[in-house]
Structures are given as structure tokens and as C-alpha cells.
């Protein structure tokens, strides 16, 4: 009869329990041959029990308390006078004792993996006096192990790597399983290992758990990862043992076991001849099944006719060979190139040299395509010279360019005017001869850098550029002059032969041997009695006094003409005037004042005092001007001026027009021009006492006589009205002119009509309506009477 796992465990528990019960008399306290005795003065109690350990089986699953053992003393006569007590680990909670019989039971299920043994103390007491009849003794209850824990891989799952192509038996990784059962008791904790998944590629050592390769020449390129399942079983792998599993992922790491190989034996690429240098012509790649450093390659041009024209480098990211241009291509010179390219691994494993050479060769053919190129100059830079005295039309030099294409199209020349803004030069469109277009001046521009354009006649879009540097040669065309503006002074107490100024000259020209200037006084100044000139022969001259003492009252300024000649061919000269001021000097010869007016001022009046006086005078003038300006601004004009006072506008309204939106019915300028010229001005500040005014004369058009007379009558009434305030403006609209069909539209005539409307409320509207209230109201006739 074959037992299952659970039945087998129960069977082992029953056997263990039987063994414990059969050895119980060894676990009891047995009577000894000696008895306790008493001695006077000193009492010695001899132990009367023999102690052995107790054993109890773990994982007891019964419903009744588990019997552990029995305590018994030879003092106990069986009459109930002795009671037993238990103390220590688990006493009362896990272990209980029958105080009459001394039987010990376990009330809870015990687990050896939680606690392997318990230490307790037992004692027999007199039930009446509760005093110990035996000394307290300590004993141990050990938990006996059963196989109730399976092996476990605490570090799983595992990952490991092993190089591909490794020999059989190469160690990959070690796995370890632990069993919580007692390793000192039986085979519950004795583990063996086996492989459930991963054969036939790998194997495992049963006792150590070391995983090893089981097949040779495992190729990463074929399969690079394997999943293993490892089992650990206790009871030395026997039936009924418990087991645990874990997974191990094994990755084959790469080795350089694959040489590089080009997919094709030859390649062909077409490139235009206009491709600039350093441009990429082609990208080729040799295939290598390896990865990482084992797939790194280097490329080189092993042979071919383009060694100096092309170069190849490797792209570190893609491991491609990049072919680039080192020199310009020319279809007319060579139409194709052939290159032999070699690719080789950088790192070779000597173990796999037998697999063949770790390099490969391929052929690359590069076809150069013709393109329409711009004209090319015979020189990249032309250097020309011309004298600045050259006449217009003088030939300076010639440039030449040609079409490099097979068609050899004619070339036409021109100057890029952005480089010759002043148009100093011209070029013959057909011959390339450069001539002077205007006068040249070296002092303005010594070198002209111009760009000459050459374009194909058949295709003007193809333009070549040539560069020309034209140097202007110097001629002696500038006369020498003073190097600076000299401020020369001479003291009144100067002695004869005293140096008062050292002068030098400059010349804009640039002679090859440098400048040489000659100084002298002009003929009319050569015999003057005041100053003389000494040429120092080093392009400088010295001005000296000729007489003793100068007086500012007699002459404060002297003008000395100096004649300067250069060494050019032909030589040029100029006359420069040196201004010399006579000054009052201190004891050290330093000029103090140099104007003649200062000499006649009082001796006690200093320059600071003069400045203070002038400042006071200016301040007074400014105050006076401010006062006058303020008075003029406050004063209003008394004479009425039509051109300035525009508040009295007489506007004609006898043209009915077409309404507000009709802007073409009448001329606005005519409304403001009455064609009237008054000969006299009318005072606006007329007092009420003035009753007689001279009637002004008019010059007007005869057709407007009636209208004019009417208007001036109203103006006269307004001027002499004592109730009218100054500068009041009166505009009359009551007259419509002769022959008006509509007659008067104004309400101003209503004062003389029989209308019984009352306008007294106008006086309540404020000062602005006082005038209307006086005209139409029933109140007083005059507001100012």
C-alpha cells in the first residue's frame, strides 16, 4: 500500500508519539535508595529524584492536550499531601501540570522553527504548609522536528551570463536553497538540486547547486538567452520530501567569432564635379553579427587611383565607412575613380582565428558627372600698380578667365561695382583690360581692391570671380605745411636771439627716401628787424627774436611768413604764416596776458573783478528785459484792428443754400470778405460821454451800398451804446437785404412787434443772458445807468 504525502507525515507523528510514551518511565522522577535525614545544628537534604529531558513532537494536530511527561517525588505517598507547581518559559500558557499527579501536558501546537526548546522549573510543595518538600529543579522540554518546511531559494530568481562558444562544464552560477527544518535530526533539511527545464544545454550539481554548460559551441547569434527551472528537494530527494523551485535566466555574452563581410563585392556611386571638399560621397558597411566592441571596425583604402582624392573614416555609431572628398573633382581631368576598400575588426580573439580572416575587401567605383561650371581665372589674385598721375584711359593691367567645360564658352568681363563705388576703373568686356576711369589720388586711397566678374556668354548665370589689388604709386603733388597750428608768444622783455618757437612740417606725399624740408623766411620778411628763422636741417626750424624788447601798446601781434620747400621732383613749396603775440610775462618767462586792452586797465583791477562787473551788468539787463516784457503782455491794444480781432464777423445769410450738407452752394471765403476797406481805426474803449464820432470812409463795390450802410449803422450804435461793455461782440441778423422773399427770419425784431410773449424769465438764467433780458424784458432799459 502506497502512502501519500499527508498520510506519511501522520504515520511519522504516531511513531514518534509511541516512542515518547514508551520511554516515559525514564522521564519520571524515580525513588532513590536514600531518604532525607536531619542532623543537629546543620540539616542536609539529599535530592530524592533523578532528572531526564522531556521530548515533545511539533505540529501536534490532536484535540486533546499533548502528554509531555510526569513529575513524581518519593515524598509523595499518594495521599494528596503533595502538590506540584511549574514555572519558566511557557508555564501555564503552553505547558500545564496536574498538581496532584505531576503530569505535564502541552495545550498549544508547537513549532520547532519558532522555538526549539523551553526551559522550565518544577517544585513539590506541602499542600498544608505550602512549603517545598524538595529543592526546585530545572528541566528542558525539547521540540522534536518533523519535515514540515520545504526548501526555499531566498536569492531567486537568478540572472547570469556565460560567454558563447564556452566548453562543456563551464560554471555559470550557483543557486542555494535553505530548509528551516532541523539539520541535525533526520533528513528533513538535507537538500539535493535538479534541473527541471533547460536541458540539454545546462546541468546542475545535485549537492552544490552549481549550474554548468552541458553543450559545446552554443552560438549567441543563434539563441542568446535561456530560461532554466531548478528544483531543491529535502529528504535527500526521496519520495515524500518537500521541494521548492526557482528560475535562472542565462544570457550568452558575445565573443568575436564572426568576421566582417561586405554584402556586395562592388559598389558604384555618381557624384557631380561641383561637390565641395569634405562632402560625403558614399557610405558603405561590412556586416558583422557580433555586437559591441566585437563589431567595431576600421576601414581603409587599400588600393586604387583615388588615394589622394578621397579618404574613408568610420562612423562610431553605425560602424559605417564614410567616403569623403579631399580635393576638388574635375570632370574634364578625370571622369571616374576606382577604390579598393578593406574592412577589419579592431579586436580579434585568437581562439577563433581558425574561422577565417577577420577582414574583407570590396571595390568602390566613383563616376564624376559633368556640370556647367563658372569661368575660372588664371590667377586667384592679380596685383597691379598705377601712378596717381595716370590719365583717364590709362591701361593698368589685364585679367584672363576661361570656361573649364568642354564647350569652352566665350567669357565677358565686368567689375563688381560694390567694390568700386566711385567707379575709378573700367574693364573691357571682351579682353579683360582694366583702365583708369577717373583721376586717382594716393592720399585718398593707396590701394584699391576690386572684384572682376567673368560670365559665360551662353549662360550668364555662371559667374566666376577674380580679385585685383591695384596699388597707387605716389607723385609729389602735395606741398608741405605746418605740422600743427602754432600758438606763439613773445615776452615784452625778450632779449635778442631768444628762441620763441620750434616748428616742423608735414607732407601728405610718401617719397621712397622719406621727407626733407627746407625752411626760410619769405623775401619780404627776410629783412624784418623783429624775428629771424634758423633751419635746423632735421625737418625743423627755430624762430628767434632779433631785437631787444616789445611793447603791446605799439603792436600786439606779429605775422611772420615762413617759406617751406620739400625734396620732391619737382619740388613743391608753400608759405605758412606764423602768428606771434606779444605778452606780459612773469619772472620765469611765462606769459600772463597777451591782449593790448589789458595793458591800459588800472593796475588794481584784476580779471576776476572785471568778470564780476560784467556779470552784474548782464543780470541788470535781463531784469529790465523781463519787466518790459511783462508790461507789454499786460497791456492790451486800444485800437480796433480787423486783422487781429476776429471776434466780430459779419456773415451774409441772404444765400439760402441747400442745407447743412450742401458745401457747394456758396463760397465760404466770400462770407468772410465784405470787400470793405476802412480808412480809420475805431476805438473800442469808447466812453458814454463821446457822442460824436467821425463817420469813416469806405471803398466798396456799389452793389453793396445799402447793405454796407445798414451794417455800419449797427456798428455805430454798438460803439456809442453806454450799456455795451468793452470788447463786446454784436452780430446783427435782422436785415435780409432788398428783394428777399422770405423777409427777416430773425427773432430780434420781435421787440418791436405786437407779440404778447413775456421774456422776463431770461433775467433768471444768469449773467450770460443779461443782454437778452435787457432787450426783451420789461425791466430797466439800462443795466449800467
Automatic annotation (TrEMBL):
The keyword Electron transport is assigned to this record: no
One protein family per Pfam: CADH_Y-type_LIR
An MF annotation (GO) of this entry: cadherin binding
UniProt xrefs under PROSITE patterns: CADHERIN_1, CADHERIN_2
UniProt subcellular location: Cell membrane
Membrane topology according to the record: Single-pass type I membrane protein
Lineage of origin: Eukaryota, Metazoa, Chordata, Craniata, Vertebrata
Name of protein: Cadherin-7
Transmembrane segment boundaries: 599-628
Organism whose genome encodes this protein: Apteryx mantelli
Domain Cadherin, residue spans: 73-153, 154-262, 263-377, 378-482, 482-599
Function: Cadherins are calcium-dependent cell adhesion proteins.
An example Gene Ontology biological process: adherens junction organization
Keyword vocabulary terms for this entry: Calcium, Cell adhesion, Cleavage on pair of basic residues, Membrane, Repeat, Signal, Transmembrane, Transmembrane helix
Alphabetical list of InterPro entries matching this protein: Cadherin, Cadherin-like_dom, Cadherin-like_sf, Cadherin_CS, Cadherin_Y-type_LIR, Catenin-bd_sf
